[in-house]
Amino acid sequence: MSERLWIMRHGEAGPGSPDSARELTPRGRREVAAMAEWLKARGIGPCRLVASPYRRARQSAEPIAAGLGVALETHDGITPDDDPRAVADWLLHQAEGRPLVLVSHMPLVGALTGLLVEGRGGAGPGFPTAGLAELEAEAWAAGCARLRGFVTPADLTV
To answer: Shortest CA distance to 57 belongs to which of 31, 24, 16?
Structure first.
């Protein structure tokens, strides 16, 4: 049975320090609102939503949680510079049966997508802000996933 995983980069964030406290800009809020509506319209059903603990990632995941009626979890291992191989190992130990939506940062989202689809952590798409990749796999191991789609706020009528 194949599993679904959506990997999303947070919306546009303003500058600031520390990095973990940066907030979404008004444009970033519009981007994530559009993506939340798109996900809701897809009818992905009951899913698990996990975000980086960084403020901009949590702010990006909140409209998704509200739109899908799911709880928002955070995971310390999906911040910008975390190892995509460690995230893939973590994915292998997650309960099966529910789609999973991860909201994180570049370069992790690109490296993780590249690792799961191509088998190489350095490969993968560049994610614009609020970009979302949809993957499908029997197991979340290097090179075992298929990229089913990639959508950005620019692809939607905002």
So the answer is: 24
